[in-house]
Amino acid sequence: MLIVMLTGFLGCSTWTVAELPGPTGSLDAFLIQWERSRPDAQPVEVFPNVANLLGGPQPILALYREDVTNRAVTEFFIALTGSAETALPILYHADRHNVSLSLAFALTWVESLYSPTAVNQNPTSIDRGLWQLNSLSFPNLREEDFFNPDVNSRHGAAYLRRCLDLGGDERTALAIYNAGLARVRRNEIPPTTVRYVERVTAYQRSIEARFNRYMSRRFPSGAA
């Protein structure tokens, strides 16, 4: 299903990976390029319900699930990550597990800088891929599975969903994701995990602010 999604999107997209700015790129530059590349004379789109969805729970996920705004949301995250091959699996599996898109993309940025080949060697284990899945936590995955964006995102999003269910809120879920459930339950959260939670949360807020500005320009009549 995801392969079909990826093929379909790339087949009709006017963007290439090289043209898309990554997390450190300029969103304004992306918007200007998008406006100039539109085939019609109108540089904006109309969807009056955008403002209502932006004010609701999980607004980015809600807009991703709307046919009218799905492509706009998808293009935003391709621009954010610099790669459709990176963004689409995260979108697909976060949606399936009802995980906030801003949280999923903030976590994978802090974990791997959106690099499917990222590796972190620990004293007794290895973290790999977009979601930095740990070799001890996922012993049944083959090495190549860790570096497959689809497989890595499927397990990463499912695990984050489990952390959210166990923790009850996003900050506790992030602590569980980083330090493990046992340490969080014993209230033995290390300083590195506290800093990790702050980094993910700060980048999540940044994503949300950028997304709101993006949608207000792309759908000006429907965004506050």
Low-confidence parts lasting 5 or more residues at pLDDT below 50? Answer: 1-27, 38-43
Total number of distinct structural domains: 1
- Average pLDDT works out at 84
Shape: globular
Could you give the distance between the termini? Answer: 35 Å
CATH architecture: Orthogonal Bundle
Assess the beta-strand content as a share of residues. under 5%
SSE string = HHHHHHHEEEHHHHH
Radius of gyration: 18 Å
Decide which structural class fits the backbone.
Answer: mainly alpha
Explain what this protein looks like in three dimensions.
It is a single chain. Helices cover 62% and strands 4% of the residues. It is mostly helical and 224 residues long. It has one domain: Orthogonal Bundle (Lysozyme), CATH 1.10.530.10. A 3-stranded antiparallel beta sheet has the order 1-2-3. A hairpin with a 4-residue loop joins strand 2 and strand 3. It is globular. The N terminus is likely disordered.
